[in-house]
Amino acid sequence: xxxATGLRKSFRVGRGRGATTVEAVRGVDFAVRRGEIVGFLGxxxxxxxxxxxxLATLIRPSGGVATIAGVDLLRAPAQVRRRIGFVAQxxxxxxxxxxxxxxxxxxxxxxxxxxxxxxxxVAAIRAFHLDDFADRKIKTYSGGQxxxxxxxxxxxxxxxxxxxxxxxAGLDPPSxxxxxxxxxxxxxxxxxxFLTTHYLDEADSLCDRVSIIDAGxxxxxxxxxALKREISGDVVAVDFASADVADETGGDLPAATKLLAEAxxxxxxxxxxxxxxxxxxxAATAIPQVMRAxxxxxxxxxxxxxxxxxxxxxxxxxxxxSLAE
Length: 325
Ligand SMILES: Nc1ncnc2c1ncn2[C@@H]1O[C@H](COP(=O)(O)OP(=O)(O)OP(=O)(O)O)[C@@H](O)[C@H]1O
Fold this sequence. Notes:
It is built from eleven helices and 14 strands. The chain has about 325 residues and is an alpha/beta fold.
């Protein structure tokens, strides 16, 4: 449903001699099948929004090709526009209009008659559970209510493909879960959904497949479970951040990292935000060995926890940085 090859975007910033080029997206390839929810996961500035904006025909790629619902993005952008819906990052603008009024206007902008537009607005209000506040001014809505309206506006013309830029950024956990339900419902109605996120849990539980993007390049791609399986074994997280073990020098984390990185049963030791992540074959056999090694060196850690690899472990393995920091 979406196919992109070598998609690239660079921006010229500044003028004259001081002008520089920002390579926002450095050639990305990906394919999204009909009825999938696919996510671009990456930190701020990775190139997620720029990719989405290119696919939604809002900015022209500097290079590469893409087809959306069988239509060439560069040759027939107007036809692409008819087949897609786009929800931008939350704008934070609050106006005096109401959900019902904006939904009718949006449908009218897609060329529908007044009576059809009104019917569609009623259906969208019901589908997105906007009934309680549809005739109230938008500036009185909560963040989650406002975001549901944004998505309802984006799908009023029943597009085949939906682009969502950070659909749950800044929402509280219940509103995020609710938005995930709405997105799944759209997929059940046959829509293909491409979204961006910097939330690990969103990529993990909502997306069928994930592309991890960093500094304009895709560094990993697959289903969340296949990506996590790439990190074989277990993760042992040793906490050095709790108040009783840390001192002004950052506690024993640097010494512990050096010591355990050299241990034969540790594949990799990565300090992340006051915690030492150890990648091991089996947490059950590694934990007693880790404790003994630390105590022999006079190092007393805080809690030690075993867990399965997460998407953040994948991100760390591919980029050397944590997305959770
Ligand atoms: N119009 C522009 N002019 C110059 N640079 C830009 C422009 N738009 C984006 N960039 C730069 O391109 C890079 C990628 O930005 P982009 O917004 O795509 O990242 P992102 O992954 O969506 O980040 P975020 O999660 O913060 O939205 C950044 O370095 C950004 O500053």
